[in-house]
Design a protein that fits this description.
The chain is mainly α. Among the domains are: 50 residues, no CATH class; 59 residues; 65 residues, AF1531-like domain (DNA polymerase, domain 1), CATH 1.10.150.280; 60 residues. The chain is 45% helix and 3% strand. The strands form three sheets. A two-stranded parallel ribbon has the order 1-2. Strands 3-4 form a two-stranded parallel ribbon. The longest helix has 24 residues. It is elongated and about 150 Å long. The protein starts with 6 loop residues before the first helix and ends in a 10-residue tail after the last strand.
């Protein structure tokens, strides 16, 4: 059988194979093995060496992005602070830095000793403030509660500017005639009321005889203003509603007036009464559409039905006919009955 390789070729292969194995081994020994974990650690160490924080005083209202990185902030933390500032927020005290999303307590504790709030941003102590309207509180002296100004209440240190302005609005609207009404004002605390009590002069009450209250249908604006619980604006509302209504049949109708609160209503009710003979009535058969429409107890739907039926029928002689003709419900009739007059042609329309 013929040989596949000659002696010469066999010797060449025998020499080449050991040399190739030696070469592969040398390459393997010279080339280092890849270690990703070691590479990551090396990268972190390099970053730590290049970005080692240099803590120094800084103002969070003016610090830059690069300065934050130098202080040890991460990019995310630095951007969070700058976004907070870009939104129009101002750092008034060092603790405001913790309001930035992404800045944790550990970072704040590390930088807190180095935070410096500039004078233009900080909440300055009272002695550093300039331009105050009144330098020091004035010693209080007796004053009338119905005429005292907001400036004086600020001057004696009783109320702040906003509180004093709110107090004046409350007083002008509801009136303040005793300590109970003073304490009812939401901006006056019990301690402030107690401190002011020795100096307050209340307006002289307008007393009525014990058995005579104010008649609501004939009272003018000055008389109504004298009632405890009726303020300046409420007087106008009562007069306007009385005109639309034609007068009050019962004192309880005062609760329907816009602006009369439940608390004031209870007080007012004890000081008034109504003379139902003084109400103004409406002639259902001859009143104009505008006269009927002004009355608060006559709904637009009922008014349209009444005008249409009156045009066809000519009129009515009693409230029962209005109910029978399906013009008014019994509830509407009960409310309107004291104000309705069923006249015939030639008779006066009002009683």
């Amino acid at each position: 059988m013929a040989k596949l390789f000659s002696e010469r070729e066999i010797r060449a292969v025998a020499i080449f194979l050991p040399l190739a194995a030696l070469a592969i081994l040398a390459v393997a020994l010279v080339r280092p093995l890849a270690d990703t974990a070691a590479a990551r650690r090396a990268e972190q160490q390099m970053e730590a060496r290049t970005a080692e924080p240099r803590l120094q005083p800084f103002d969070p209202n003016t610090v830059t992005f690069d300065e934050l990185l130098a202080l040890g902030f991460s990019k995310h933390e630095a951007v969070s602070l700058l976004k907070f500032r870009a939104a129009g927020k101002i750092f008034r005290i060092p603790e405001d830095v913790t309001l930035c999303y992404g800045i944790g307590d550990s970072l704040y504790r590390r930088i807190a000793p180095y935070i410096r709030i500039g004078r233009r941003y900080m909440i300055a102590p009272e002695q550093y403030r300039t331009g105050r309207l009144i330098a020091d509180p004035l010693p209080p002296s007796p004053f009338r509660i119905d005429t005292v100004s907001a400036r004086y209440l600020r001057a004696i240190g009783a109320l702040s500017k906003r509180q004093a302005e709110a107090f004046i609005r409350w007083r002008d609207l509801s009136g303040i005639r005793d300590m109970e009404e003073l304490r009812a004002c939401y901006v006056v605390s019990d301690s402030v009321a107690a401190a002011l009590e020795p100096y307050i002069i209340f307006p002289d009450p307008i007393l009525h005889p014990a058995d005579v209250a104010l008649e609501l249908n004939s009272a003018d604006s000055m008389q109504l203003r004298a009632v405890v619980g009726i303020g300046e604006k409420t007087v106008g509302a009562i007069l306007r509603y009385r005109e639309r209504l034609g007068g009050f049949v019962r004192a309880e109708q005062l609760a329907e007036v816009p602006g009369v609160t439940e608390r004031n209503y209870e007080r007012i009710l004890k000081q008034i009464y109504c003379d139902s003979c003084k109400i103004r009535k409406i002639d259902v058969n001859f009143a104009t559409p505008n006269e009927l429409a002004r009355h608060p107890y006559l709904a637009p739907r009922s008014l349209r039905k009444l005008l249409k039926a009156r045009q066809l029928k000519g009129g009515w002689s009693s409230t029962e006919e209005l109910i029978a003709d399906d013009i008014l419900t019994r509830e509407e009739t009960a409310r309107l009955a004291p104000y309705l007059h069923f006249g015939s042609e030639g008779e006066p329309h009002n009683e």
